[in-house]
Amino acid sequence: MTATARIFELLTRNLQEVFGEGDATRRRAAIEEFYIDDCVVYTPDGTYVGHDALDEFAGDLRATHPHFVYTHSGEPQVLANAGIIAWGSGPRGEQPKYTGLDSLLVRDGKIVALYVFLNPTLS
Predict the structure, then answer these.
(1) Superkingdom of this entry's organism (predicted)?
(2) Per the confidence metrics, is the pTM higher than 0.85?
(3) pLDDT, position 94
(4) What does DSSP assign to residue 45?
């Protein structure tokens, strides 16, 4: 797999298998597969460093809306060792309740840093 293809894969799978995953064991396996050990995740609510912190954050976030699904909008974009993906989250079959943009940096096929940008809440 090329580096570009791997970044495309990480962009889409991260949404579903880390942030959209309700099963803690599967979520942790995805984190270990996708992220370097000392990854950094930047969100409007804080900064999370390492697998344990990311796992706790993603699990806590998932628990607040376990029935929401993540769908990407538009096409993911990759440039060099970085990628972006726009997404929405809400109940399946409904308009998203919130939207955002993920930007990630990749080294050796794993996410080094993830930046999560949230758009204003939809009414």
Answers:
(1) Bacteria
(2) yes
(3) 92
(4) T
Nearby residues of 75 by Cβ (< 8 Å), 6 or more positions away: none
Long-range (24+ apart) CB contacts under 8 A made by 78-81 are 78/4, 78/7, 78/8, 78/11, 81/3, 81/7, 81/105, 81/106, 81/107
> Block means of pLDDT (10 residues each) for the chain, length 123 residues?
95 96 97 98 97 98 94 94 97 92 97 95 60
Q: Taking a C-beta distance cutoff of 8 angstroms, is the pair 103, 43 a contact?
A: no
- Domains (ranges, CATH) in the chain? 3-118 (3.10.450.50)
Residues 97 and 119: their CA atoms lie apart, in Å, by 10
Kind of pairing, strands 46-49 and 68-79? unpaired
| Residue 69 DSSP code | E
